Amino acid sequence: MTSIAKKIYKTLSNLRTGIILLLLVGISAALGTFILQRPTTDPAKLQATYAPETLRLLDRLGLTDIFHAWWFLGLLSLLSLSIILVSIDRFPNAWRFYSRPYRQTDSHFRAAVPTKAEFPVRDPESALNASERGLKKLHWPIERITANGHTSLYSERHRFSVMAVYVIHASLLMIFAGGIIDGLFGYNGFLMLQPGQSGNIIETRTGQRKALPFSIKCFSAGQENYADGSPRKWWSKLAVVEDGKDVETKEIVVNDPLVYRGLRFYQASFGSTGQVDGLNLVATSSTGATQSITLAMNKPVELADGSNVTLTEFMPDFFIRDNQVFKRSDDLVNPAFRLEVKRAGSETASTQWLFPAYDKVSQGPDVGYRFTYREIKMGYFTGLEVSHEPGQWLVWAGCILMGAGLFVAFYMVHMRLWITVVPDADGKLVLWIGGQANKNKDRFQQKFEDVVEEIRAELGRALIAPRSAHDHNEKAELELVATK
Amino acid sequence: MATRARVVQMEPTAPARSGNALLVLVGLGVAFLLITALLGAAKSAGPIYNESNLLYVALIFYAGAGALYMGFGVTGVDKYVKFASIATALGFIANTLAVAHRWYLAGRPPFASIYEMLLSFVWTVAGLTLVAEKKLGVKIIGSITMPLAVVCVILMQLLPSEVRPLVPALQSTWLHVHVTLAMLSYAACAVSFALAMMFLIKDHFPSETFLALTSAMVSAIYIAVVATRFEKWGGLSVTAYDAKEKSDIFLGRGVRLFVTVPDLGWLFVMAAAAGLVPLVFWALARLQKNDTYYGVANKAVFIGVLVQVVVLAAFVMRVHDASYPSPFQEGFYPTALAASPFILGGLVSGVFASLLYLMLLWRRSELEELLPNTQTLDRVTYQTICVAFPLLTGMIAAGAYWANRTWGSYWSWDPKETWAAITWLVYAGYLHMRVTRGWRGRRAAYFAILGFGVVIFTFLGVTYLLPGLHAYA
After folding, report:
1. For chain B, how many structural domains are there in total?
2. Is the CB of B89 inside 8 Å of chain A's CB atoms?
3. pLDDT tens, position by position, B37-65
4. Quick check: B5 and A188 CB within 8 A?
5. Looking at the predicted complex, does its ipTM rise above 0.90?
6. What one-character DSSP code corresponds to residue B134?
7. Is A22 in Cβ contact with B428 (below 8 Å)?
8. Which residue range is the domain that position B297 belongs to?
9. Could you give all domains of chain A from N- to C-terminal order, each with its CATH number?
10. Where are the alpha helices (DSSP H) in B230-340?
11. DSSP-derived secondary structure for A112-164
12. Does residue B347 share a domain with residue B383?
């Protein structure tokens, strides 16, 4: 590697750089919560909150869309690179430690191990057997190692926990990768449907329109309220239409989307279109005959005597000034309906106004009919959020892997025991037991002493039960030397 | 004989002093309050065992426990802890019954409004106090957690508490998973904060620096309120609140209506000045290298506490159930304490922090004697964060999965999400510095305290200071 490449590698693969990058990411993200961001804020609010020069400066620095700014994504990439490089840097050692456990001891090692104990013994074989029995009782795995005529025991638990930290960082990279895939290949949009309508063009957050590979048809939709009027449930009955056929139907609610071919359709909102779906009236002729009719906007309905009536204007909330009707608001508070009646055989139409809040009967010039208000049905639409997130499976897999990795890293301790029979400083044979753990050393100390106690008991039992004629009546003095 | 190493007991070896007086006082107080509560409940119509009565009983026991724990903190009498534990346990039972009752009435666990979140939080804090005592042997933790529980229950009385049916977005099992993980992780972070503070106390972190930091925090709170709410002629701007609708009054979309409470602004200015005085004397002491100024500063803190209590009382009395004119619209508009949770929280925290500082000042040597050694405190702080971090990770993951099911996007850089991620990064930083760089002791404690500050901002600051999708809690 050239020296520059080496320098870059060294900088990126050390922990301090990683921490600095973490800090920069954190500060940038925090800024993104204090400074109003364009993707989620009304432009008018931005103009109202910041002076024009300030807003221009913020825009230029990318501070009004931090989370999509090139430098923020660059920081995240550098952070990922740093994680990768640090892992590569440290992995070979960890792998060597993991794949080639140090199973046998030499005198230097035995002197250096922090937790150990010794018993004087007569016979190596019976001592090792007793140790095996003790370990088995406490559910430690046992490996017998014979080398150069010398036998020793090795026992360890949870060796894989040394790999946990790499699993954790790999899972974090998986999550980032999922996010990147979604950033590049995923999309999000909105689809508004009225009952009976079907559509396949969604509008994305940036205002673009995108065509889906199939259509969604809405059969019906509705809203259920609680007793106090607040919404309880929004539902839509949808069907996926592919090649003219209804391939899949589902009634969706909030929290339960329709999923088809990687696309998800969420119940996001529900509302009135502000349009009249049907206006129910009773037309009373001058003769007293009544006729029940339903009017839709600009669709003439024929009456019994050949005249026709059309609903030509609708205002959900009106007021009158200078003899003219004006719209006050979009809420259905005080509606006004303008009806045009064309008498049979006549070309001219005359206007009647219907203000149900004041008078259920329409007012206007005499056309032989009066219209009485019965009911109004407003049109409604269902708002669907559509999203395509191909990378999400990587994200969820990464989360699960990270959970497992964290659990192993924090709660599974790598513990090792070595047992061998060697001569001590005075040349007498001793059973040497040593142990080591990579964390929670206090708890390991206790486990170690449990093992030592168990082996001591086994050694005592081995002596009590006669093995051979000359072992009989011998009492070994057991001394425990526990050192730390 | 084998020497068995045992888990290092956290009990200190303080000389035992008999102290029945406090026990009798607290016992009488608890009994008195319980009897009056029972009489009050019996007099009113409706069942005695309802949620608010049970919560009040829990409050009484927590307050008694808090008093006994603080008494232990100051005198070291072991007996206090025993009765404090009993009181905590009794309060915890009452709290559990209150939660159960609300759950039964609402048909779902209490996770859907700030009132319910506080209810769950207090329950968790009480439970964790008992666990920390029995399993970890940290007896003194009750002296911080029980007053915290009392403050939370008092705050709850000001919040709208009706059982509201869930809006569609909250009708999901993921609500329970996400919120439970949030509660557990925040509680663990709170415990790690308490342990880190205890470390600093035991590690001879200078009391003068505690003085400066406490005064700075208190002054910052009052200066912030004055900077944002002080009106011409000395009034204080407060949100108007409609008690019938149980919501703030709005002028337009997202724009709240403010009314002016006359003269209250001056009181806050006074409190800000009172908070700055100790800071000024601390600075003088350092610049002039004259220790007598510290004495003046400490007296100023004591007076400052009294001033703060006066301001708090005045605020409560003037804002609770009153009506004032508004500069924005004609007429008088009602106010309620529920509309100013942030100001109220700031005032109460200021009083609380100042009282804790005074306790430290007057009883530091006894406190240090009572605390376990620094290595143990350091290690247990680390172990607590080892519990909090996976829970935080789980909370963020569950929140992302739930957001994906409800809004079609698992990460939208919403302020609450972003701050939760920042919290996660801070604690990840702590773990890295400790495991890889071997950071121990003071630096680790500072990091743990910073982490909890970020947790508080994520939990409360984002909700009240920054807008976003996470409007529920």
Report:
1. 3
2. no
3. 777 777 776 677 778 888 888 888 998 88
4. no
5. no
6. I
7. yes
8. 214-352
9. 3-95 (no CATH), 101-158+413-483 (3.30.310.80), 184-273+382-391 (no CATH), 274-379 (no CATH)
10. 264-288, 292-319
11. H-SEEEEEE-S-HHHHHHHHHHHHHHTT---EEEEETTEEEEEEEE-GGGGGH
12. no
